[in-house]
Amino acid sequence: MSKNVKKQHYIPQFYLSTFAKDGRIRVYDKDTKKPVYPSNIKDVACENYFYDLGEPGKRDDFAENEFSKLESVLATSYRESLIQLAAGIAPDEHMGNLAVLIAFTLLRTKERREWLLKGMLESANQFFKHSTTQENLRKILQESDQALTEDRANEILDMVKLKINPEAEALIHLGMLFQDPRMFESIALAILNRDWYVLHFTQDMNYGFWISDAPVVLFSDSDTGPYGLGMWASYTNIAFPLSPKFCLVLGGEGLPKDPSEKRTISVVPCTKEMVDGFNFRQCIQAHRFIYPCTSNTFLLRRIIKNCWGKNHENE
Predict the structure, then answer these.
(1) CA angle at 82 for the pair 38 and 237, rounded to the nearest 5°
(2) How big is the CA angle at 201 (ends 197 and 205), to the nearest 5 degrees?
(3) In the prediction, which pLDDT does 256 show?
(4) Angle, nearest 10°, between helix axes 95-108 and 169-178?
(5) What are the tens digits of pLDDT across the range 213-267?
């Protein structure tokens, strides 16, 4: 692979290509709400030098090269899984690599980076605003300037706004991915130890499952209260479309399970209403862009509106 690839994808191109036609994929922007438009998969779910570290001309593209090596392995299992599913065969032997693909896709996106940075900044601000921290900083300010009053020191501290240097964002994100491989392994194991189902949609050749710029969807059929959706929580389910006709759904009921227990995939038919429900989840959890298998913007907006009303009556 050549050095310093400019457009670096946070969703693998081999995955995007399955939802594209002739290398072009339909795109809907949640922010602008403009009509669905076609785009080359080379230009979606990517940013310039997204994973590179350092200044232009001196960039370290270690992460992009390592991701490329992993993708070449995962792409083979992914494509073979689709071939087997199309032939009516459950791709049980590829479950391990599919679990890695889901974990890999979940952790590397722009949405996950911003989630990580937001959490770090919130924690830093909580520490900064803590009474003990404020007292210690006030003492340091007054010791450095004997004429500084306590009120003035407090005013200075109130003006301080913590921010993350944009040049450090990639470093922080990659630190999460590479510094502790046990976290990645833990997530992959939490995925593998679920009940595996593949939903197969055959009713409409011109319709199917959609994806987004955050295609790994966590959801629950019950109220999670203040606890949110955790990877190891038994009430957390995972949806990951494999193609417009197949969607992998991982049920958390019964977790934790014995890791040595053999897993198999159950392939089950699904209705258009079920597809609409999973497409709605993609729309809601998308970071910004949705990649629908339809150019009908009205249909897309109607599904979001109708499903939102059914599933979020209190919001």
Answers:
(1) 85
(2) 155
(3) 57
(4) 160
(5) 999 999 887 777 666 777 777 788 999 999 999 999 998 775 656 666 777 899 9
The two three-digit tokens of residue 254, written as one number: 């019964």
Residue 107 corresponds to which tokens in the numbers above?
């952790």
Half-sphere exposure of 150 (CA within 13 A, CB side): 3
* Contact present, 231 and 190 (Cβ < 8 Å): yes
Portion of the chain with pLDDT greater than 90, in percent: 43
Which of 6, 218, 233, 242 is closest to 112 using CA atoms? 218
Q: Which amino acid is at 52?
A: D
- Separation CA 11–CA 107 (nearest Å): 10
Please state the pTM of the whole predicted model.
Answer: 0.84
263, two tokens: 């897993």
d(CA 203, CA 271): 7
Question: Are the C-beta atoms of 238 and 221 separated by less than 8 Å?
Answer: no
Range from 148-152, 247-251, 260-264, 271-275 carrying the lowest mean pLDDT: 260-264
Distances in Å between the Cα of 35 and the Cα atoms of 54, 244, 300 are 37, 20, 10
What SS3 state is found at 91?
Answer: coil
